[in-house]
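Possible regression after last week's pipeline update?

I re-ran a chain I had predicted before the update to compare outputs. Posting the input and the new output here so someone can diff against the archived version. Not blocking, just want to make sure nothing changed silently.
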Amino acid sequence: MTDHNSSAGGVDGDRTSGEQGRSAAGWPAGAQQQPQSPQAAAPYGYADNPPVPPQQSSDAVRAQVAAAWVRSARPGPVPPGEAAVPVLPPQVSQASAASKEDQRKAAQEAKRAERKAAYEQKKAEREGRKKGRGGAPAAPAQAVAAPAGSSVPAASAGAAAGSAAVSGSQARAAGGAGFDVPRPGGRLPAQGRRTHVAVRAALLITTCAFALGSCGVAGLVVGKSSVAVGDADLSAKDVERYRLSEFPITAAATFAEEYVTLCMTYSPQNADKRRDALTRYASSGVDRDCGMTGQGTQSVRQAKWDGTVEELPEFGANGRYLGIQVKLSTGRITTLSVPVYVKDPATGSGLRIAGNVGEMPLAARGSAPAVKQDEEVVDQTLSNQLKGQVLPGFFKAWGASDTTGLTRFTTPDASQSATTGLAGALASPEVQEVVALAPEGSEPNATITYGQGQAVQARVTVVWGGAAAAAPAKGTPPPTTSVKRSYRLTLVNTAQGWFIKDVRGGVLDPTGGRADAGATASAAPVPEENPPAAGGEPAPGASPAPKTP
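New output (post-update):
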């Protein structure tokens, strides 16, 4: 029975049968055998010599170098005289006791060497392009270091890596095509990065343009749908009511006022000049004397359009009948209907009086409705308090615009009308009537209480004795002229009493109706002691200045 662990059963006296087999299979003819470490020669049965983990095999190293060459080489014809495959390092036997940790480290070193060789190759290519050489770049001068713990010689590994780099460069140069693919997490070449950025910019611009176009189309669709409504045509009644027409009312009314002023101003001494002035306004068939027969003397104090407009059917949009209200020097007020033609309604040019005027009665006046005061509750106690204690002093200071006195009766936030006054226009006020309205919801004939800051409304009637500046002369009686005026006041209750916050003029008549019930629409003439006569020819558009005969 033979002991296989002893040296007697081995081949060549000092090697085991396993080592002999590896040497015969792993080394080529003439290859130098690596010396055996002392630990590998020690028998496994000794406790002082633990077994060494097996190192990476030469087959693995050869496979890694071949893979690096395949990755770096580009497709293309192989130049003559060059091998189609790289020169691989010789296969060597490794110690069977190499550990797994050493194998892992060896694999890492091999990968680093591969990456370094690729980097050197690319660096050489860049330098070659910069120098303008058309041939293949030189192989990196630095040899690839052999992995730590590997039995492959460093010179053999460096030569294999350099040969792989040169062969890959030559293959790419011969093919003239291809591109570098970066490793995961790496960066693209300079040219590739520029192309990538340009593509991204083009995509971004295209997306933005498409979005803007979509928004524009959507806006047009929504806008068109929103305005796609029926035409808001106005009826003839609405056009007449709001005077919505193309006829130039303002220009025509001014022209008619000037003509009526000349027409209603007459004096026998200036009849010829008046006739010449009227012809510059009227058409050829209009009465040149404007209806005056040559008797009497009168002048116009005021001629103004009263707001009435009547369509002139013969001229359509170019003509209107306008009502002009005239106040004569005799005090009489009347209205004349004047036909006016406009050649160009858009610009208001080409005005002409197209016919004789007609005198009409004044426009009918209406009646005012009665004011409902049934729900109002009057606080008579407060009314008497304001009439006797607060309002007399306030209206005295208010009529004279006494700033110091007004601060005693007005609130800090009082309105401008309450703190300004009449500046002495009226004086000697006498509060005749005060009607203080209780807050809403108050019961009649009940005791009413007011909280701090509560406001009430009051209607006040004041009789003013005359102007403060018109002081009577010494020895003459005071003026007896007086006027009655009405006001609406807002008062606020405070801890110091009632103070005025706002003053407004005018009080409504609760009765309503009309005072001239049964009277005619035309105003009665008001005689004057010395009615002015018409002077010289008035200029068009200006009322003549009256003067005594």
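Follow-up from reviewer: compared with the archived run. Residues 56 and 419 are 109 Å apart (CA to CA). Marking as no regression found.
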